């Protein structure tokens, strides 16, 4: 057994077995708030998966995260984590502005990548990541984790089984006040900074909905939309609306507004078929199926570590045990729709 001790930064008091080739050994770049519960703990809970190292620019916070989550190594420099020999897979959990840089560096080192959504600042950057993937031995999965949650798997199954007949159209509405509670609170509100997020709260939340449309109903043919900054509270658009035509002819309409009164808040996706409709809350836990005026409500409880199932599927993909749960090509398609709405 090979045992390695780190004697320079990062500081560590743990021993680590690095010999196994059957285990995905993770390093997290950006161990911030989103990794505390949603994703971070799932890497050690998943079979054949270990969280080996974490990185954050603030050394004290990186050290604290490693201590609290029992992670052997911590860094305050991304390159040092990327070059850690005991890490074969990288979870990029930073804001979108650094996804391109870190993904390409990881792929050049032939390391696997689990990349947070949105995939990058825009579709052009996402395509550059795909190009890097072509010449790498590493694999890449985009973290559109709702695909693996039981609630959304159930909706997909209902649609595939024709529960509401042939799907004709769908309507997305996400209406929130300026200080929406849907956004993870951070020290710096980077999601409202277009240079860091790509385009405000829309870029942070809409990928969930647009990816589920893709996952449920198929690829798109054309997309067109409008976006503007109505309230001038920050430098990004706070209202976006768009129309999507899927390749199968299904029509999609979407409206995202982050400047309405709290009483007008809404989180709803409606999918209409020739026999009925399905209504659900993308950020909630309820699905309502209606046929011939009769409704049935299904309630779901999401796991504490909400990305667990997606991370499990990603680990199995990295180990060659299943197909990619969300490939780069799919992530690019979502970025293209986002760009068509906001450019």
Summarize the structure.
The N and C termini lie far apart (55 Å). This protein has helices spanning 42-45, 59-68, 78-82, 99-108, 123-134, 150-160, 194-197, 200-217, 308-318, 328-342, and strands at 24-29, 49-55, 73-75, 89-92, 112-115, 140-142, 167-175, 220-228, 239-246, 251-257, 266-273, 276-280, 286-291, 294-299.
How would you describe the overall organization of this protein?
- The chain has 343 residues and is an alpha/beta fold.
- The protein has 2 domains: 24-145, Rossmann fold (3-Layer(aba) Sandwich); 150-302, Dihydrodipicolinate Reductase, domain 2, CATH 3.30.360.
- The protein contains 10 helices and 14 strands.
- It has helices at residues 42-45, 59-68, 78-82, 99-108, 123-134, 150-160, 194-197, 200-217, 308-318, 328-342, and strands at 24-29, 49-55, 73-75, 89-92, 112-115, 140-142, 167-175, 220-228, 239-246, 251-257, 266-273, 276-280, 286-291, 294-299.
- The strands form 2 sheets. Strands 8-9-10-7-11-12-13-14 form an 8-stranded mixed beta sheet, covered by helices on one side. Strands 3-2-1-4-5-6 form a 6-stranded parallel beta sheet, sandwiched between helices.
- Strand 4 (89-92), helix 4 and strand 5 form a beta-alpha-beta unit.
- Helix 6 (150-160) packs across helix 8 (200-217) and helix 8 (200-217) packs across helix 10.
- The longest helix is centred in the middle third of the chain and has 18 residues, at 200-217.
- The termini are far apart.
